[in-house]
Amino acid sequence: MNRPSLAAFPKAFMDELCVTGTMTIRQWLQLAATLDVDGVEFYSGFLELADRRTWPAVRRMVQDLGLAAPMMCCSPDFTHPDPAFRQKQIDAELHWIDMTAELGGSFCRVLSGQRRPEISREQGIALAADCIRACLPHARDRGVRLVIENHYKDNYWTHPEFAQKMDVFCELVGRIDSPDFGVNFDPSNTLLAGEDPLELLRHVKHRVLTMHASDRYLAEGTLEDLRREEDSAGYARRLRHGVVGRGLNDYDAIFGELVSAGFSGWISIENGVEGMQQLRESVTFLRRKIEQHWPARAR
């Protein structure tokens, strides 16, 4: 079995890349190239990617630095009650699938959508499943697979993820039977849902195609305090991304489950908010654990 490959996600620089434009993609890639990683995960909201004419140049930047860009992080919002709004979200996802393929990627994220109070459990699952199915033929044609994350909340959303809870997430995943669709597993998001990451992983491990490696902690207060703050724009301030391996996740147990399922895909690191050294320490930890859990083969 091949070992998983490591990618880095610019969690620390989202506003600079997506809102203010004070960091360029080239600058982020040059930082990523100083890490012991194989690739980078892009976010669909990077300002420079708004013009599709830039995509070939960005792909060349990645390749020139000896990296890959296998994963695209997108946040379609499929649980809105307005059909016209949902169609716009489908159209956006189709655009992001094109972006993924043009940048040389193979995996494009989908989500269910925001957990709007007026949308019932059954209605939300049905809406999200229908919208994801509508995107699958285009993904197949472009050589891209869609991965749904057990998410907490997009940086720029008001409400948390509709399928945040394990039972909802598993039911939604179970409704979409396609080789072009799988799971992007993030253990920390399960903790934020007040649930056990290993329990969720055991339910979906044979459908995991990619993973986010993160370790969350609360800078202050409790999970109950966090939940009282969920319905506000962006992430709660009390929430932090720590160095992977120093938080609440048991990576030995997580990797053991992934090995048992034959996983050898991409693992993207989500931290570095407190500086690049944080990312470097996470890379070191994950390299060591990957070597420990996967058979010794050249990357």
Features:
single chain, 299 residues, alpha/beta, TIM Barrel, two-stranded antiparallel sheet, 41% helix, globular
Largest sheet: 8 strands, parallel, barrel
CATH level-two architecture:
Alpha-Beta Barrel
The helix/strand series, from N terminus to C terminus, equals EHHEHEHEHEHEHHEEHEHEH
Sheet with the most strands: spatial strand order: 1-2-3-4-5-6-7-10
Mean pLDDT: 92
* CATH fourth-tier homologous superfamily: Divalent-metal-dependent TIM barrel enzymes
CATH topology: TIM Barrel
Helix content: 40-55%
CATH C-level label: Alpha Beta
What is the CA-based Rg, rounded?
Answer: 18 Å
What is the helix tally? 11
Shape: globular
Give the tally of β-strands: 10
Low-confidence stretches: 231-236
Structural domain tally: 1
In percent, how much strand structure appears in the residues? 15-25%
Output the structural class: alpha/beta
Q: Would you summarize the structure shown here?
A:
This protein has 299 residues and is an alpha/beta fold. It has helices at 14-20, 25-32, 55-64, 83-102, 121-141, 166-174, 187-192, 197-204, 223-228, 251-260, 276-293; strands spanning 5-9, 39-43, 68-73, 107-110, 145-149, 181-185, 208-213, 215-218, 239-242, 266-270.
